[in-house]
Amino acid sequence: MKFNINEEQMIIKPYEHEGNIQVREQKGRFQDIRRKLSWLLMLTFIAIPFIQYNGQQAVLLDIGQQQFRIFSVTFWPQDFILLAGIFMVAAFALFFVTAWLGRVWCGYVCPQTVWTLAYIWVEHRIEGNRNQRIALDKKPWSRDKIQKKATKHAIWLFMSLFTSTTFISYFIPAADLYAEMMTFQWSGLITFWVLFFALCTYGNAGFLREKVCTHMCPYARFQSAMFDKDTLLVAYDSQRGERRGPRRRKDDAKQLGLGDCVDCNLCVEVCPVGIDIRNGMQYECINCALCVDACDQTMDRFGYDKGLIRYTSEHELLGKPKNKMSLKLIGYGSFTLLITVLMAVWINARIPLETSILRDRNALYRVNYEGLVENTYTLKILNKTQQPLHYDISAKGIDAASLSAPEKLLIFPGVMQEVPVTLSADGYDLDKKMTKIQFVIQAVEQPEIQLIKDTVFFKD
Question: What is the set of domains in the chain, with CATH numbers?
Answer without folding.
Answer: 18-350 (no CATH), 353-458 (2.60.40.10)
